Amino acid sequence: MDEITDFRGRVAGRDTGDPATALMATVGERVRRARERKGISRRVLSDLSGVSQRYLAQLETGQGNISIALLWRVAEALDHRIEWLVGEEDPWTSEELRVTELYRSANAAERRKVMEILAPEAPGSLRAQRICLIGLRGAGKSTLGRLVGDELGLPFVELNREIGEQAGMPVDEVMALYGQEGYRRLESQALERVVATSDALILAVAGGIVAEPRTYAFLLRHFHTVWLRATPEEHMLRVRAQGDERPMAGNPKAMEELRSILTSREALYARAEAQVNTSGKTLEASKAELLATIRAHGFLDHG
Fold first, then answer.
1. Domains of the chain (ranges plus CATH)?
2. What are 41-55's pLDDT values in tens digits?
C-alpha cells in the first residue's frame, strides 16, 4: 500500500490503536508529498500559506495538531482541495486529481477543448473585452498595461489600487492589519466588482493571485489572460530599479527564493491564454509584442 497510514490506526506498518494519531500522520505525509510534487521548499510553502516553517515541519512529521483554518491555507497554497488531504481515499490514485494534473500539463488549445465540453457557454462572450496581465512583480504589468491601454483606448486598472480604495487604506496597511487571508478576501471582492462594472479594460493583478484557486478560476473565466514572463534576474533588477530594496534587504537567499516561487507558479501562470516574454527586450518591443498578441488572439473581437 502506497499510503503511509490509514485511519484505523495503522502507521508505517504497525498498529497504533489511535485513529487520531494515524490521521495526523496521513495528513502530514500528504502535505509533504504534495509540496514535493509541486517542487517547492518548506520556506516557500510558508510564504504562500502564511503558516510558519516550524508549524509546517511539525505537520509534515505527523506531530502537528493543525486547525482546519490553517490546513485550508496549506491546501490552497498547494493548489489542492482540503478534502484531498484528510479523506480516506489516497489522492494520488484518485481520478479527480489525475484529471487535474492532466489539465495543468495541457497546452492552451487542449484546455480550450476541455472547457468547451465542460462549460459549453461561449468563453469569449463571458470574457468580453477584459484583458488581464499576470506574472511576478517586475514583469512589466503596470508599465505595459498603461501603454497598451492608451494604444487601444481601454482604461487601465491595477487591482491593488481597487483593493486599497475598497479598504480605505494602502495595500501594505491592509496586509499589516488583516493579514494574507484578509487581503485575499478583499482581492476576490475587488475582482468581482471590476467584472460587474466593466466589460472592456486592461487589468494588472498581483503575482500571487494565481495561488488562490477560486479567485484565479474566476479570473480565467472572465478575462482574456496574458502571462508576462521574465527571468528571475530581470524580475529582481526591475524591482530594484523602481527603488524598492526590500526583496534583498537582510535576505541573502532572496534570489534563490524568487526562483523557487517562479518555479512553483509556472504551471499556474501557463494557464493564461497567451504569453509574452519581456526578457532582454526594450519597452517598445515588449509593447509591440503584447499588442500583436492581443490582436492575434482576438481578445477584442467580443463586444
1. 10-99 (1.10.260.40), 107-296 (3.40.50.300)
2. 888 888 888 888 888
